[in-house]
Amino acid sequence: MTGAMVIGATVSGNEPLARRMARSALALEFADFDPEVVAKAKVCLIDFLSGAFEAGGHPWSRQAIAAAHPVGNGATIIGTSRLASGADAAFANAVMGHGLVREDMHAASISHHGVVIWPTLLALSERAPLRGTTLLAAAIIGYETGARIGRALFNSDLARLYRPTGLVAPLGAALAGSFALGLSEQAATSAIAIAANTSSGLNEWPHGGGSEMYFHPGFAASNALRAIALAEAGALASETILEGEAGLFAAFRRQRAPDDIKLFAGGEAEIMAVYNKPAPACNFAQTASQAALRVSHELAETESVERIVIRAPDAAVRYPGCEAKGPYRNALQAKMSIPFSVSATLVRGEIDEENYPSLADPEILRLIAATDLQSDAAFTAAFPAKQGADVTVHLRGGKIIRHSLSDVVAATPAEIRHRFRAAAAHVIGEDRARRLEQAIDGCEHLGDAGVIAASCRLEPPGQILRTAS
Question: Which pLDDT band holds residue 7 (cuts at 50, 70, 90)?
């Protein structure tokens, strides 16, 4: 069974959704999760840290770090020697984890849960000792909660206006943190409700060329921590925050919430539906770029290209920025654009971070102008279970090169670990990067999971990697 055991807690259909979710989550134990679910959580943590290490020098990362208030006995800001309040550290770490646009992805909720959940839990792990089993179980619960709510809440119309990660990931992180700290059912319910009140993130940035997208997970993580702290202190919030007449579904979806949102329904864990991106670009550009790479292997040169037709799910075509053909003000707009990703892949013959600074490359711009992005009925019907794409290149003389993929090809665990080792070693050195990876792999044996966050500092105090029974 690829998921968690179905919890047998008795719940009433008349009880608010948030309370039902809190009750079922708090009844879980680490032993309820199958080994493959636990292994996936570890890979997602490694991938999150990889992105944070690699993006630490980007402008948005530096801005988030600069905004953090230093605290002598605070939480780690990854890749620095600075300590800050838990909320400030989580904000900065979430921004860095999102900084490459290569974070993990849950297609059905159109959300990046890992860049909110991991910063939240890492900050909590340095506030009070958490066993490694608790950290992993809490993360799995966080992915599950945000993903299940997001599945029910989002459609392509809503996603054109609001950033899904900003709306649902704070709720998942709030319940994850509540579980990690052992809060009561009442407190966990209030934490979810308070976090829902912070749901935010507008999708104007692809149109305006702004960088606020990078900060959305930062606000989500820091708000989740504040929601947890308020609930822990006794604050009470609206239990009907999901299904109420002014709740999350009424406010954003403009329709009733479902009668129930079950965690781990049918014994399946949503984290198993999360995939790790191979390319540092928008989720919806991934498969088309991979199809374009296959086309490039048969293309001697791009000068003979007359027309490019890209077919993708309707959700991809309609997501803000994905159809953009320029002009591009920054690399983020290029990373969101399916025409840019495909054209750059054809010109450069690879999918790489270096594809995206080339905003003025004349050949890339020529191919973009010759591109037609179309919604495909079959790919639309298969989404979100699969994310297919088709790239057809028409050459002078009538020759056609076409490659189609029924689904995105996710980065493998080996690829994820390779890029983590390179990024972590560059910042903290090969030996410490190796020991950090070992600590994560043996996380269930850690008596104090705070050593993971502390190991990400530039100048950690004393011996920080230790294991405990």
Answer: very low
